[in-house]
Write a structure and sequence with these properties.
The chain has about 250 residues and is an all-alpha fold. It has one domain (about 5-254). The protein has helices at about 5-25, 35-40, 45-65, 75-95, 100-120, 130-150, 155-160, 165-190, 195-205, 210-225, 225-254. The two termini are about 15 Å apart. The mean pLDDT is about 85.
Length: about 250
């Protein structure tokens, strides 16, 4: 659809981008889908993807001022990032033939099962050893889903959360992971959705949301203790899964 650059469009989009920035500041990345429903009120998914591609890079680069190298789990990133690169490439090649609705439903169900197991364990994090095959699989899956649906967070979280990383290392690792991912997928998304003048203008306006949104999220992160942050992450996984489930089912019913 054509983007109508009205005051409503600007305000709703700005609010959505601010929410995404806030989530990146608080949790390092991976929960961008929480803010996307707002964008869907004023633009179609392809236009939103073209708008967000450069904004994600700005958010991530700004976020790195808080998530410094000391917060990165380098052994995990060494395993995750190659899979991410492969996944984004596969997602781009299959973008127009993949059934996005089916992917959304499958990812939602898997995520809800994962969170259900956590609840069954009484909300405790069962620390598990690092696994190279699981890390590579998580990277590939996250690459595909972030490319086709901006929903790369659940696969990464399902790998990282059971490792029992400190809250800073968890957030820093996800931040760098998605910085790499968003840099890689920016060009494919800009090819798939060439931004028009209005979209570019809207993106420039939304850049103003980046510093304050990321900073406020980081302030929240500093106030949360380890257990609170992990509970928040599992709660956000539920919201993400329900959003994916709704997108998938409503797509088939439309």
């Amino acid at each position: 659809m054509e983007l109508e650059l009205s005051l409503t469009t600007i305000l709703v989009t700005f609010a959505g981008v601010f929410l995404i920035c806030f989530m990146k500041g608080a949790f390092g990345g991976g929960f961008a889908i929480v803010g996307i429903p707002l964008l869907s009120l004023v633009m179609d998914p392809i236009t939103a993807g073209g708008l967000l591609a450069p904004l994600f890079i700005a958010m991530d680069l700004f976020g790195l001022r808080y998530w410094k190298p000391s917060t990165w789990s380098k052994p995990d990133l060494t395993l995750l990032v190659p899979g991410l690169v492969v996944g984004i490439g596969v997602g781009y090649l299959l973008f127009r033939v993949l059934d996005h609705r089916a992917i959304a439903i499958v990812m939602a169900v898997v995520t809800l099962v994962f969170v259900g197991l956590w609840f069954r364990a009484g909300g405790n994090v069962s620390v598990k050893p690092r696994s190279a095959p699981k890390a590579v699989a998580a990277g590939v899956t996250s690459g595909i889903t972030t490319m086709v649906a901006h929903s790369g967070g659940p696969p990464l979280a399902m790998y990282l959360l059971p490792l029992g990383l400190s809250k800073q290392v968890y957030a820093g690792t996800t931040s760098l992971f998605f910085t790499v991912g968003n840099l890689l997928k920016a060009i494919p998304w800009l090819i798939l959705a060439r931004p028009t003048g209005d979209v570019l203008g809207l993106a420039l306006i939304c850049l103003l949301a980046v510093p304050s949104g990321v900073w406020l999220g980081w302030r929240l992160h500093a106030r949360l203790d380890q257990r609170q942050l992990y509970r928040a992450c599992y709660g956000l996984l539920i919201i993400t899964a329900l959003k994916l489930l709704w997108d998938g089912i409503s797509g088939y019913l439309a």
